[in-house]
Model the fold of this input.
Amino acid sequence: QVTFVESGGGLVQPGGSLSLSCVANATITPIYRMAWYRQAPGNQREIVASISSVGNTWYRSTVQARFIMSRDNTRKLVTLRMDNLKPEDTAVYYCNSDHRYHDPLPWGRGTRVTVSS
Done:
């Protein structure tokens, strides 16, 4: 079964940037859409961005034009470039299949992003 390891989080000031990575332990090629999710303290996990096997992307409106998602099936890798970060982006970020299209896969530990001055 495919599992994921997320990395790249950290503490950044408002307006700063981070690049998150997610590496799978097995091929992600059969997964039509991969997604990034986040869970802020006290909130439910929410989908942030999604990408198809051919690179078609979808973004939550609150991150549109600030986040860019990519995938590299050969390297079993998905990434999330985050620019102009805001305090409301503070959360633990996870990758997984896009649950609007696929059954959920096991969750990784996620990577924590904190946006604060």
